[in-house]
Specification:
CATH class of the largest domain: Alpha Beta
Strand content: 15-25%
Distance between the termini: 34 Å
CATH architecture of the largest domain: 3-Layer(aba) Sandwich
Radius of gyration: 27 Å
Strand order of the largest sheet: 3-2-1-14-13
Oligomer: single chain
Structural class: alpha+beta
Amino acid sequence: MKKILSIFLIAVFLLVSIPTNQVDASSYVPVATFVFTENSNKFNVDNMVKSLYGETFTQSNTLFVPLRNVIEEVGGSISWNGKEKSISIVLNDLNVNLKINSNYAYVNKKEVKILLLILKNSRSFISLKDLANLLNGTVVSENSIEIQKQLAEVFDTTGRKIKVPVKISKIVSLNPMVTLFVFPLKMQDKLIATPTAAKVINKTNFEKVFPNLSNLKDGSDFKNPNVETILSLKPDVVISSSGTPVQKLEEVGIPIALLSIEDTHTMLKSIQFLGTILGRTKEATDTLVYLDSKLAFIKSKTDPIQKKKTVYFALGRLTQSVGASLMQNDMIERASGVSVTKDIKGGKIDVSIEQILSFNPDYIIVAPYSTDSVESILSNSVLSGVNAVKNKNVYKMPQFLGSYDLPEPEVILGIMWLSDVLYGNSVNFDMKKEAKEFYSKIFNYNLTDADLKYIFP
């Protein structure tokens, strides 16, 4: 089992590994906003309070700050030459060279006059205004500046080459399901905007898991991204699902990473990708090991079963089902069932009652957002000869943040639940216990008894 997990994780990692070559900035460049206080060893960067290597001070009526803190926060490189008492900085296309106690710096070999680079308590200090000038930044106020972030080339899970900051602290999500992918990585505090009116997510339950939701702005949505709104938020990266129209965002240089999430494999790959660009590789790996262990357990218990159960999945209504490209087909397969619509091309598909009679599925699974209920299907006399109805094997898919059949992390619980419905004697999950563990690990949330009753009524 350990060998299988190791091979899986290595394969996923190779697919999303990120080149380290640096790239030029575009018209829109993500920036870090710094706020300093005189005579303080604390500073604020992108609304996060952090410690400085030394206290700020004022000289010649100008605030001086530790140089290294700023460069590290924007993801640039900084090196010290003790023999020459000089400092070299690389930030995107800028190469900056400075010397201690010198009034001159060199930016791409061009001489620039500065107040002074001061060495104090073995730390180099520079005036805030000079720092902004040398790094093509902006002076916001006498104690605040904005500095561009170091960018690197990456390939998102759809294969697009994009530019993202080396250090990401401001995330805009355009897809409510994609928003949930930052939670296993413990990066939800970096979200600054998400679609707030999305019906696909249960807002009441989401606010339990993520109390800060009400403080987030609406960054528009994946169907029609609003460039002006997104620009006003000054994100480091925008995340969304494949199929999002990105041309207008790309034209102005907004970094947008698309996640392919319409099957379990690409969903897990997307978790690894986000973990890599967000600097959360350990959290991503831990999540993949946990989720894959559940899938591997199901496979080990159901592989010996010769006759697999057939499943019909009803989406918005009984006569709407899932074509080959939708997550629900993959979910049924991962649960060791056989989707009766798996060979029909497309996404959402219309199905006639006659087709359902012909499919004669062993089980019918009804999405919680369907207009047809379990009861209405069981009482439909036209369907009385269908095995699923005859044997009362019609079930409603559970839900909490979203329905467990949707392409987001909770789908793993959906797979577990479905495998237990189909093969309870073999799989035998304690779903309440499994759900508690899942939400604790993935969302850092402890389900209440009321939550469990909502999920498994």
